[in-house]
Specification:
Two copies of one chain form a homodimer. Chain A has 476 residues and is of the alpha/beta class. Helix content of chain A is 43%, strand content 14%. At the A-B interface, helix 4, helix 5, helix 6, helix 8 and helix 9 of A face helix 4, helix 5, helix 6, helix 8 and helix 9 of B. Chains A, B: This is Aminotransferase class I/II-fold pyridoxal phosphate-dependent enzyme. Chains A, B: Keywords: Aminotransferase, DNA-binding, Pyridoxal phosphate, Transcription, Transcription regulation, Transferase. Chains A, B: It holds the Pfam family Aminotran_1_2.
Chain lengths: 476, 476
C-alpha cells in the first residue's frame, strides 16, 4: 500500500467512527506536512483519492471538508409506493394526539418538529430586539403592512441573489412563519375540492393545510435520497389535473431527501409544461452538510410559477414567527391574502431580524449549527445501528435534523409511539405523514438535540421496544 | 336664575366649546367651594342638574366626569335600511384600492384604520421587549405553541375577571392580532356557502374574511347610536338560517355605535335561542369615553356560544400583532385552527406584552389615550359642523376614533375620495363598508390623530369639496 493510500484509509476510518464529522474541515495540506512529516504530494494524492471516493469535497479558497454521506451499514429505505387515488385529507386528529403527547417537557424529544433551541443565538437576537426597538419609527408600527418591513425584505432579497435567484424585495411577502406563507400560497391557487400533489410520505402540516381548506391530496412516490419520482409525478398530473404541487425540495420532512439541481430543473420544467404552480417549501434549505447551499427549484423558474416559501424558525430564530413567500406571478394575491388573514407580521420580530441580518453574524451561526446537526446525525445513526432490530432501514440525509426509520413490517409505529411515551420518549409515527395512514412501520426521529447519555439510552430503549415487537410477532 | 343654575350653565357652555372634554374630571366640590366662594350645596345642586341633563356622570369615590355625549348641532344619521337578500361578498378590490391610495405617508390620514402611533407608550414597550428577551427561557421559543404564552393568557384572564366575565386562561388562544382570531372563529363554525349576519354598514375586513372563505353576508339594519336592530336580526335569522353572527358590539367600525348592556343581553339570548354563535369583535372596547368599560356580550353567554375576540393593536401596541379569542365551547377548535394556520403568535411580542401588563401602567396609559381621543373627536365634530354642507349628518360615538358622516345624497363618496386624495387627504368612502356597495354618500373619518392646523385645514377642504359636489348637482 502506498503512503497516500494509507493516509486516505486512515482518514476514512476516522470519518466512519465519527471522529471526523460531515461538514468538518480536514487539516490543511500544510498541517499534514508539518506535523506528520509527509510530502505535500502525498497529502494531495490522499485527498484526491478521498474526494474521488466521495468522502470529502474541496471548497474554493477554503480547503477540504468531510462530505455529508452514508457511513452507516444500515441500508437506506426504498422509494415509497403510494396509492395513486386522491384522498380527502383527515389526518389532524392523529397529528394533534401525537403532538400533544409529545409536548410534555420531561420527554426525550425525538418526536419534536424543532431542533434544540440551545443551538440558536438567542442572546444576540435579544440584543437585536432591544436595539431595534430603541430607534423605532413610531409610524412603522402602523405603516408596516404587507408585504412587510422593507429592510428585512431587502436582506432576504440579498440572500436570494447569493443563491442565484432574482427576487425583487417587493415580490417578497413577510408572513407569520413559513406555515402561513405556505397556507397563503395554497389559497392563492386553489379552491375547495381541488387536487394538490404532495410527496409520500409528506409533512403532516401540509396535509392539515389541505384538510382545512377542503382540498384533495394525491401522494406521489418519493425516493428517500433524491426526492419525488418525476415519472410518477408526470403520471399523477395526467391523471388528476392538480391545481398545485407542494414539495419540500431540500431535506424533505420526514425523509430528508434532497433533489439534485438537475432534477429540480426537470421538475420545474415538467410542472411549467402543464401550468401547475409549485409551492416550494424550503424551510430546511440552509441546514445542509455539504459544500454549498442546495439549489432552489425557484432558480429554474422561467414562468413565475414557483412560489418559494421559507422562514428563520428552523435556522435562526424559533418563536419569532418570521417567514416569507416569494410567490412569483402570484405575489400580489399572496400579499392581499396576508392582509385579510392576519394583517401583518409582528413588527418587533421583523425589526430584530432585519437588524441581526445587517450585523453579519448569520453565516457564522449557520456554520456552527450545520456542524452540530451533522455530528448529532452520526451519533444517532450509530446508536440505531447498534440497537435496532435486523431488517431496519434508515435514511442518512445530507441536511436537516430528521431520520426516517423503516422498521420490520411486524412493528406497529403507533404502538411503538405509545410504549415509548410510557418510557418518557416521544417519536413521530409514520401514519402522521400520510393522508392514507400508510407507513405504519415507520418513525421519524429528531436528531436536533445535543447527543448525551439520555439520548443514547433513549435510542437503546426504542431499539429494545422494536425488537420486543418483532419477537412477539414471530412468537405469535 | 338661581346661583346653581348659573354655575351649571357655565359648565355646560365649557363642555360645548370643548374646553371641558368628554371623560375629563370636573373640579371637585371642594375646589369650586374654595376658589369660587360658593357653598357646597350650590355646587352639589349644579352637578346634580348637569347629571340629570346627562352632561356629566359621577364615579364612585372618584368624583364627577364629563359624559361622552352629543354637543354638536349636526344631527345623527338614521338607522340603516339594508337589502334583506344575502350577497356573495366581493368588496376586496375596492378596499385594496382605497387602502393603497391612503397609505402614501404624506397624506392626512382621515381614511386610516389606526389611531396615531404617537398615542402609544412605545418607549415602555421597547424596554419591556428588551427586558423580557434578557431572561427568556430558550425552551419557550419552541414550546409556546397554541394556545400561547401562559403568563400573557393569565393577564388577559385577569382583565376578563375585572369585566365580570369568567374566562379560564386555557380557553384563551393568542393570535396574530384580532383579525386572525376573528378569521379562526369564523372558520371554526362555518363552511363555504354558509350565511353570516353582519351589521350595516359593516367593517370591510369582516366582509373580506367572508369573501375569502366563500361565505354569504346578510347585512342587518344597524342604528348609529345603539347598534344592530334586534327585530331585523330576528327576521334575518328566520329567513337565512345563518351559521354565525359577526358583530362589533362596542364602538362599531364604522358607525361607532355602542349596544347598551341590556341590548347586548337580549342579543345573546336571541342568538342562543337559535343556537347561532356570536363572533364578538371587541377591538375598540377599551376606548370608551364614559365612566366605565362597556359590558361585553360575552358576559351574558350562558351556552358558550359567544366567541369574544380582541387585541392590543388599537389600544396599546400597534404592530405587535397580539390578539386573542375567548371562544367558549369552540376554544379547542380555534386552538387547533391556529396551529395549522400559522403555528403560533410571535414570542417576542407575547413576552413583551406579558411583561408590560405585569408592570401595571396599562390603566394609566388607557386613561390618557381615552382623554386624547375624546378631545380630538370634539375638535373634528366642531370642524365638520362649521365646514360641511347643510343636510350633513354625523355620529358622535362614545368611544373609538371614527366618525361616520352621511353627506347629502348628491355627494358621491368615491368621487369625494378621489378629489380629496388629489389634495393629500385620505378618507374611507362608504361603499367599502357594504357587500352591496351601499352608503355611496357616506364617509368614515378617523379622529385618532392629534388635532392641528393641518387637520383643521383638511376638514375645511373636505367640506368645500362636498359643497362643490352639492352645488354641481343642483346646477345640473
Amino acid at each position: 500500500m502506498k503512503l497516500y493510500e494509507a493516509l486516505a484509509d486512515e482518514l476514512a476510518g476516522l470519518m466512519a467512527q465519527g471522529v471526523l464529522r460531515p461538514g468538518e474541515k480536514l487539516p490543511s495540506v500544510r498541517q499534514q506536512q508539518e506535523r506528520r512529516g509527509v510530502s505535500p504530494s502525498t497529502v494531495f494524492q490522499a485527498y484526491y483519492q478521498l474526494e474521488a471516493r466521495g468522502l470529502i469535497e474541496s471548497r474554493p479558497r477554503s480547503g477540504y471538508y468531510v462530505a455529508a454521506r452514508r457511513f452507516a451499514a444500515t441500508p437506506e429505505p426504498e422509494v415509497s409506493r403510494p396509492d395513486p387515488a386522491s384522498t380527502l385529507v383527515d389526518v389532524s386528529e392523529l397529528v394533534f394526539q401525537v403532538l400533544e403527547a409529545s409536548r410534555a417537557p420531561g420527554n426525550v424529544p425525538f418526536g419534536s418538529a424543532f431542533p434544540s433551541p440551545l443551538l440558536f443565538p438567542l442572546d444576540k437576537l435579544g440584543r437585536a430586539v432591544a436595539n431595534s426597538m430603541r430607534h423605532i419609527d413610531p409610524w412603522s408600527t402602523v405603516a408596516d403592512l404587507p408585504p412587510g418591513n422593507a429592510e428585512l425584505r431587502r436582506q432576504i432579497a440579498l440572500r436570494y441573489q447569493l443563491d442565484g435567484v432574482q427576487v425583487a424585495p417587493d415580490d417578497i411577502v413577510i408572513t407569520n412563519g413559513a406555515l402561513e406563507a405556505l397556507n397563503l400560497c395554497l389559497q392563492a391557487v386553489t379552491r375547495p375540492g381541488d387536487t394538490v400533489l404532495v410527496e409520500s410520505p409528506s409533512f403532516y402540516a401540509a396535509l392539515q393545510a389541505l384538510e382545512r381548506i377542503g382540498l384533495k391530496a394525491v401522494e406521489v412516490a418519493t425516493h428517500p435520497r433524491d426526492g419525488i419520482d418525476l415519472g410518477a409525478l408526470a403520471a399523477a398530473i395526467g391523471q388528476h389535473q392538480p391545481r398545485a404541487c407542494w414539495l419540500m425540495t431540500s431535506f424533505q420532512n420526514p425523509l430528508g431527501s434532497l433533489m439534485p439541481p438537475e432534477k429540480k430543473q426537470a421538475l420545474v420544467e415538467l410542472l411549467a409544461a402543464h401550468d401547475v404552480p409549485l409551492i416550494e417549501d424550503d424551510v430546511y434549505g440552509e441546514l445542509y452538510f455539504g459544500a454549498q447551499r442546495p439549489a432552489l427549484a425557484k432558480r429554474f423558474d422561467g414562468k413565475g410559477l414557483v412560489m418559494h416559501c421559507s422562514s428563520f424558525s428552523k435556522c435562526l430564530a424559533p418563536g419569532f414567527r418570521v417567514g416569507w413567500a416569494a410567490a412569483g406571478r402570484f405575489a400580489r394575491q399572496v400579499e392581499r391574502l396576508k392582509l385579510t388573514t392576519s394583517l401583518a407580521a409582528a413588527m418587533p420580530s421583523q425589526l430584530a431580524l432585519a437588524e441581526y441580518l445587517g450585523q453579519g453574524g448569520y453565516e457564522r451561526h449557520l456554520r456552527q449549527l450545520r456542524a452540530a446537526l451533522a455530528g448529532q446525525q452520526q451519533q444517532m445513526l450509530a446508536a440505531i445501528e447498534q440497537h435496532f432490530p435486523p431488517g431496519t432501514r434508515v435514511t442518512q440525509p445530507q441536511g436537516g435534523y430528521f431520520l426516517w426509520v423503516v422498521l420490520p413490517q411486524s412493528v406497529d409505529a403507533l404502538e411503538l409511539h405509545r410504549r415509548a411515551l410510557a418510557q418518557g420518549i416521544s417519536i413521530a409515527p409514520g401514519p402522521m405523514f400520510s393522508a392514507k395512514r400508510a407507513f405504519r412501520n415507520c418513525v421519524r426521529l429528531n436528531y436536533g438535540h445535543a447527543w448525551d447519555a439520555r439520548q443514547a439510552a433513549a435510542v437503546a430503549m426504542l431499539g429494545a421496544l422494536a425488537r420486543a415487537a418483532c419477537a412477539a410477532s414471530s412468537a405469535a
